[in-house]
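Extended Data, panel c. Modelled sequence:
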Amino acid sequence: NKDFLALLTMILLWLIFFWRLFTPIGEDQASLKNGDFSGQFVAFGAYQYERMSQGEIPLWNPYNNAGLPFIADTQAAVFYPPRWITMGLSSLAGEWNYNALQLEMTFHVLLYTLLMYAFMRRLTLGNAYSEFASFIASVIIGYGGYTTSYPPLQLAVL
């Protein structure tokens, strides 16, 4: 089946593209560079994990300015389903860490490419080159400059 082969290839490309985040070999490991991702989203995730691990919904963030309503901050992603999965996996690991958020980000890229493939397949049904065109479109959107140059942007597109 061509669809299965395309999906398998997209997963393989995803693993190849992010291999330095997944490798257990210390000398080969890499992390995302400093910026909003490491400065803001890691702190938000750590605060959310801290509150939720104590059985609380993080309503208020006392650490920003004189305090901010954390639950109302869309960038905090308190009720965002992938963040809850990340929180659950972090809970199994026993702590929140930078790698958990990097893994969440990589899954967004995989989801982004797979959903683009499904969308393009729907748009091009009946076309003889539907599978190929859908595969190319998903690879371009998933690994092109728009997505890879600034990781939080894929959330705006999803």
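The chain has two domains: 1-28+99-158, 31-96. This feature is highlighted in the accompanying rendering.
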